[in-house]
Amino acid sequence: MTNAMTVDVEDWHQLLVRYMAAEEIPPTSNVVEGIGILLALFEEWAIRATFFVTGRVAETFPAAICEIDSAGHEVAAHGWDHRPVSDMSQQEFAEDLRRTLDTLQRRRRSGDTVLPIFHLGQPRNGRSTCS
Ligand SMILES: [Zn+2]
After folding, report:
1. How far apart are the CA of 54 and the centre of ligand 1, in A?
2. Average pLDDT over residues 10-28
3. Distance (Å) from CA 80 to ligand 1 centroid
4. N or C: more exposed end of the chain, with fewer CB within 10 A?
5. Which of 7, 13, 3 is nearest to 38 (CA)?
6. What is the Å distance from ligand 1's center to 46 Cα?
7. Model's pTM, two decimal places?
8. From the CB of residue 69, how many other CB atoms can be counted at a distance below 10 Å?
């Protein structure tokens, strides 16, 4: 049996402020704390996962994305700012996707080729460290 594990990397504090107060704030460090907890658990249980990361989280906390990548997990796009695709025009969606993929690729340590979809490549076997 093959199992799959995915993680949504977004900051719910940021999203709740948007939805409840119609105010835009940057992602908070809560998201980094959650990533650290999951990376430790996944390391302990030898689990590899796909982390779907918003572009704003990657832009705000680049070291966290590097740590995900360096631990051998797959990094994938979860939109720039967690906006529903159904709320965007085709042009807005294309821009959102390009901006997100560009940001995620810059935050990764590996030079893997970026595929022109949400997927950013296979988890690597080797490990590296984030500086
Ligand atoms: Zn999500």
Report:
1. 8
2. 88
3. 11
4. N
5. 7
6. 24
7. 0.80
8. 25
pLDDT in tens, 72-102: 898 888 899 888 888 899 999 999 989 998 8
Q: How far, in Å, from the CA of 38 to the mean position of ligand 1?
A: 16
Identify the CATH number of the domain in which residue 71 sits.
3.20.20.370
Q: Angle at Cα 12 formed by Cα 64 and Cα 77, nearest 5°?
A: 50
Residue 121 is assigned to a structural domain of this protein = no
Mean pLDDT of 24-52: 93
pLDDT of residue 106: 79
In this prediction, residue 129 carries a pLDDT of 54
In a domain, 119, yes or no: no
Domain membership of residue 87 as a residue range:
6-107
Q: How far is the CA of 125 from the centre of ligand 1 (A)?
A: 27
Number of domains in the chain: 1
The rounded Å distance from CA 13 to ligand 1 centre is 13
CA–CA dist 106, 122 (Å, integer):
16
